[in-house]
Amino acid sequence: MALVCKGLLSVAKRGLSSQRPFCNRPSSSSNPLLNRLLQLPSSLIKTTLNSDDRFAQKSSNFSWDALAAGLPSFPSEKAQLVLEWKLEKMLKENERDYDQYLNLLSLCSKVRNVSLAMHVFTSMEVHGIKPATPVFNSLINACFSSKDAITALSLFEIMQSSEDYKPNAETYEAFIIGFSSLGNAVAMKSWYSAKKAVGYCAKLQTYESLISGCIKSSDFDGAEKFYEEMMSIGIMPNEPILENVVEGFCRQRKLNQVKEFLKSFLDVGQEISLKMAEKIVRLYSEHGKVDEMEELLSTVVESGQVVEVLLQVYSGIIRMYAMLNRLDDVEYCVGRMFKQGLSFRCSDDLEKVICCYLRKEAYDRLEIFLEHIKGSHKLTKSTYNLLVAGYRRAGLSEKLDLLVKEMELAGIIPS
Questions:
Q1: How many whole angstroms separate alpha carbon 323 and alpha carbon 143?
Q2: Cα–Cα dist 16/19, whole Å
Q3: Total domains, the chain
């Protein structure tokens, strides 16, 4: 992608740097009813909802919006029962609000239930609520969420032959997104061409789907074409697009392009996402690029990346040095990490370091290392067992006895 870095920089100067840096958004507060429904057997879902709904007539504790927001985390059977209950309630009360049904169709898509979406649609017709283009678009989304492209295409044919619910820009977008999610780049591109042919412009979501679909199907040239097209018309790339660009470079093993893109990204004051860091660290690790990993670590430290990204890079470089038995470099890197107030990301990282000490037969240095980390990292049973096996092989009976006593004090039974 020759124009990626240049394009990112030019678009960034027009406003990307003013955007909020990428970060994890806080999760919504827990909903007591939602948590209760998750614990109940399916047979009690509708009864419980009826009871809470009646109580809601006298209080404001029942929030359908809050419950609906949590539905994607439900088991499919329970999610269907909740939506069935809502539809039955709407029909019983002779609900005529078109948006209510449209919202219900959208929820069917989110929980991947196309059969229930069709039931909502037919219920609307039976009750004299005329369908419109957004309803058909929601049905198409529900079809793709269930990987049912054939029904989605049938719905499009119905729309084309109608007078009241003709396809619109969002209809074409639904097919682009849908085929992208299925990894069908050929169909996705055809629908993009069709969208342009009828006069609709591409938007950020369009390019996100196009680039994602191309990367999924290993069509890297296609991803390059769409990225450069997006940049040429001044659309700012979002985080998923940038992550896909990085993935494309990594899968093609284009290390220089990864470095250049990373620099252009950081030059406009943006942050590296955790997914980007994971992909780059994996690429460098697979190819044994120690110097590149060190350079990445320096870049991440100097640019003030979030702790999760910093730990990801530290983890990668420490593991690499440990596998290469470069104990001095392991200790130096661990020391830098500790000076920044960080500790090991997981027990597996720690165990890779311990294995390096054991292979180098540096038992005294290992003891010093273990004493240093005990204040910030609790040893797991697998870590203790690794030490036991290492001391036993080396015939270090005194160290072994002390370690076993330590395990007993921690309530861990040696294997």
A1: 48
A2: 5
A3: 3
